[in-house]
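Structure Section — protein described below
Tokens — whole-number codes for backbone shape
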Amino acid sequence: MELSTARLLLRPFRADDHAALHVIAGDPQVVRWMDWGPNTPEETGVFLTYALASETETPRRTWKFAVVRRADQALIGSAELHLESPEHRRGTMGYLIAPAVQGQGYATEAARAVLDFGLTGGGLHRITATCDPENAGSVRVLEKIGMTREGHLRDHFLIRGAWRDRLLYAKLGQLR
């Protein structure tokens, strides 16, 4: 499954993506808001193995996309949609963009593509995403793609020894 936007291709990960992916996943600045990382090369390999295996999962529950800039074919991030509850048509999504290209609208473009896919082709009714309250960039992305802030989850994650809150965002599809 590939998703396409004006400037990006969201494609399945490939085994040869390890080096480019690790530059992103191993960067402390990229993962400062995440409950994982920075990754070791081995941890990036485990993620990549899981991403490759999810391509053949039956029934499919997870779509992990390499976010590739069309202009130069550079892998600049990742995006994900996870089917949380098939019976309730509910999913979660997330994304990461390399610091060197942040602020250029790539996260918004990738997140919108994943959200649209989930609510149309994926047949989901509700998709949620969370972000750290201090992550102003992600707050902007989630609001730009039409997600609504539904709550503030206190002490939601224990990240590197400190409790961190999360803001909860959601969007509902047209299917009722």
